[in-house]
Amino acid sequence: MPLLALIDDDTEKLTRYLSQCSRTSGRVRGGPRIRCSNHQPIICKVFGGLLREEQPRLVWLRLLPCNFVKSHSATYDRRLTKAKEKRTLQQDEQRWRTAFEESAIGITQAAFSGHFLAANSVFQNMLGYTESELQGLTFLDITYEDDRQTNLELVNELIEGKRQHFEIDKRYRRKDGTLVWARANVSLVPGTDGVAPFWFGIVEDITARKQAEHALQITRAELARVSRLTTLGELAASIAHEVNQPLTAVTNNSNACLRLLANGKLEPEVLRQALEEIVANAVRASAVIARIRAFIRKAPAEKGELDINELIEEVLALTGHELYKNRVQVERQLTKPLPHVVGDRVQLQQVLLNLIVNGVEAMSTVTTELRMLRVQSQFDESGNVLVAVSDSGSGLGLEVDRIFTPFFTTKAHGMGMGLSISRSLVEDHGGQLWATPNAPHGAVFHFKLPIAARSRHD
Amino acid sequence: MTSGPVVFVVDDDPAVRSSLKFLISTVGLRVESFESADTFLAKEPALDEPSCLVLDVRLPGLSGLEFQRELAARNIRIPVVFVTGHGDIPMSVRAMKAGAVEFLTKPFRDEDLLDAIRIALARDRVWREKDKELTELQQRFQSLTPREREVISMVVSGMLNKQIAAQLGTAENTVKVHRSRAMEKMCAQSLADLVTMIQKLKSPSEKAS
Q: What pLDDT score does A24 carry?
């Protein structure tokens, strides 16, 4: 049955309508709702093709029942949504791509094997490699040799699921061979269907920060040295005494021998004894000088195993005259033997020296009571050596919180750096330095340092 | 050697102490050494012979300067030679004012120390002679009768025999007798001699100078 036969309205009328709707030949859309005659009248949408000649001629016609349009709109919407989604996905992709490329921080993706898959321009510039060059390398290949082990350990912890991500400050070796300090934040993105697991890293160039830290470290070391020199200056009399005593013994013994020799009365046994004393005292004097020289040397910190008791004795010897001059009695409560600690001899001596000199100065105003400086050493179950220097001075009072602040001082001629420097030196050794009140008055300065690993097993 | 001058060395440093002992012994002096002022005071060594102290300023317990004061307080008179590892000017001034012979900074030249010891011993000898003389004078003075003492004190003050006689209400001749007896007992050769003796007796505090 021809389709047109079903339409009530005649073709001419329809053609006229269509020609009004569209002036161009070809496809037309829309149109009146029409009734089909032999059926239930239905309202259709009309689409038709007109050939515009002298008389426009309808060449094709499509009727779309309106209820059909309604029932199909859901599918239509779905299709619309899908298209929209595709667009959004493309936009997202674009957005992320831009973020990846334009980021001020290095971003990189690597296969589970460690080979780079992608790297943004910041990362490429940081290392001097192009993305395609990187794709032939693993992250370990470009990690500085000394940092590889630490890096690998952290990677293994990620693989074993011990952690979700890690952060590491490490050095990369650039293509040109130079080193660059970076802080890398790395996570392992688990695989999904069809996507293999991969590494995702955010890498920041921290070379400038590291250089600043290094410069700060040098400045701090220099400051510590200046502070040592200042303290030594205050102890000049004490040091002179320490050197003069043995020199006096040497001179006296030698002169006595010369006198006896001149008189022809020098007996071999007397000479032998005198020479032994001379040697012993020369050694004693040179030991004092070696101690001072070590103390003012400019060398970087050298950490080794140390007996804190030994250091305490050395510093007490160095401050002997200061203690004497200030009429301070020293009480030693040293635990022997004491497990060793790992540290720089000079730095730890400096800490002890600061605490002892401070204690002596704190007692300089005490006139009525005994001036007692107590130095204690012990160790605890949790693997620390504890040292306490107590004085019977005026105590810390309300200033207890401020004493560790740089440039805070209660002394007329103090620089206010002693305790601040001491605290940072102890902290550099993985320890702590703090103060408590002493009873009945005065202050106690404590510091603790971790016991050397080897000593723990002893 | 059980007689002759003695040098007492007080120094807390064993090496310095023994070296001082050795050095001083080379010039034939007896040396006794102590590690602190307290051990010296506790032992109270006999000071029968000319002696001196070689004292470290820095000592445990009593310091050298305090020891010097303590000796004065105990009326122990002994010349002191100070040695110190770190002499400062105020300290040496105090020591010298308190009568130290010398203040030497370690390490010192041996001649300086030995010279100082020689001077110290010489000073002690002089003190001892003066002491001896004074003791004799005192003994002589003690042997005078009250009247003789009265007369010579007036003589020394410049009064004439006549004036003394008038003041005492006695004859001039009696005064002359008292006076010549007193001169004889005091072993005074002349009036000037007597005046000197009486002055010495009057100011025994000067003996330490």
A: 44
Question: Which pTM does this prediction carry?
Answer: 0.59
Residue in A241, A245, A267 to test binding to B, most B beta-carbons within 10 Å:
A245
| Per-residue pLDDT, A379 | 92
How many Å lie between the alpha carbon of B128 and the closest alpha carbon of chain A? 29
Whole-number Cα distances in Å, B191 to B148, B149, B172, B179, B195:
15, 14, 17, 10, 6
Q: What is the pLDDT of residues A370-385, one digit of tens each?
A: 889 999 999 988 889 9
A350 inside 8 A of chain B by CB? no
- CA–CA separation, B16 and B36 (whole Å): 13
Q: Tell me the one-letter amino acid at A418.
A: G
Q: Do B13 and A274 touch (CB under 8 A)?
A: no
Which amino acid appears at position A85 of this protein?
A: E
Name the residue among B158, B71, B104 with its Cα closest to residue A251.
B104
**From the CA of A351, how many Å to the nearest CA of chain B?**
26
- Given the cut 0.90, state whether the ipTM is greater than it: no
Q: What is the DSSP string of A90-123?
A: HHHHHHHHHHHHH-SSEEEEEETTSBEEEE-HHH
Peptide bond into A65 cis (omega under 30): no
Tokens standing for residue A105: 């921080």
**Interchain contact, B106 vs A277, CB within 8 Å:** no
> Which amino acid is it at A71?
S
**Contacts for A143-151 with beta carbons within 8 Å, 24 or more apart?**
A143/A170, A143/A171, A143/A172, A143/A173, A144/A170, A144/A171, A144/A172, A144/A173, A144/A179, A146/A171, A147/A171
Q: Is A285 on the interface with B (CB under 8 A)?
A: no
Beta bridge partners of A166: A186
